[in-house]
Fold this protein.
Amino acid sequence: MRSLAAIGLALALAGVPGIAPGGRAAQLETKVLSVPKPLAAFSLEDQQGRPFGKDRLEGRWSLVMLGFTHCPDICPFTLGNLALVVEELSTRVSPERLPQVVFVAVDPDRDKAVLADYVKHFNDGFIGITGSPEGIQTLVDSLEGYVRVARKPTGSTSYQVFHSASVSLVDPQGRIRATLNPPMEPAAAAAFLTDLMRRGATE
Amino acid sequence: MTTGTTVMGIGRVSAIVAGASALLLGWASLTAADGGLRVSDAWIRLPPPGVKVHAGYLTISNAGATARQLVRVESGDYARVELHASQVTNGVATMTPVAQVEIAPGAAVRFTPGGLHLMLIGPKTAPPHRGDDVSLTLEFDDGTRLPVSAAVRDDAAGHGRGQGPHRGHHHGH
């Protein structure tokens, strides 16, 4: 058996850089695609039940993340983080260039009923989308993401969901341009996105 | 810190007495049998509406000479509380239950977004509001029980900000 105590200690040590002084504030983990990757067509619904396909990711920039509403730790953190990034961005770019934030809810059985209130909690403008497992998988594959909903044969409503943690930047042509790994320092992320969107507009 | 808040309620008249009591209460309730365990900065993320699983964070320090294990957390406000660790491995976020958490002598363990957290399951009453205090009881392997008051707040406020999945960073603002 693995030592859980050791895990606890390892996590405690892993947390140390976070509180140590060291000027890591501007640190941001990103990956810019050398060739923009067009998303495949997909068919989901937004939190109002309206169709949400690839066309809704065209004509403006989008920040897309995967998650599920029963995720108490990482998903709300990332959504809150994105709210701060967008707030920071709104001081740098015109409203039409401000990316829409799209939360892809990958656990439709539990997500659908609460999705509208859930996304609004973080920002009035955030969009939540979900749909059939196949529809979700199509978009996840297209985003080169990963999702596994570990449903239990007993039908229990308590189960694990594994999903990619990164945020994808999609351009107005519906192409993935970059990914960002949370946590994102808001000012650094805003600077990164502003620069990429400015360059991206001419391509 | 938590008892300090409670004592503030007594009023200004007995401010000096309260101050002294805070120290005494602090000693009594935040200090383990071996004089070592202390809990600080306990908070619960303001939950989105409709969500029945909430997350809580805190820091436990151990000034004693013996390693201690946090074995259980209870709250009268939730059906149950579990210890979990989030991790991002190869870009995939996972959450694993943890049976107990060791606090080594002279060390502190920080529960933070994206790392160790309390998973508060099944709120018994209405979901907590921003600014509410939720009572938790931490139980350790030596039988020590520490009452803790966790404030309900957003991620963005206070020093929880900037801590996150798989790496933290220091905030300049």
Notes: The helical segments of chain B are 2-8, 15-30. The CA atoms of residues 44 and 56 of chain B lie 4 Å apart. Residues 1-34, 157-173 of chain B have pLDDT under 50 and may be disordered.
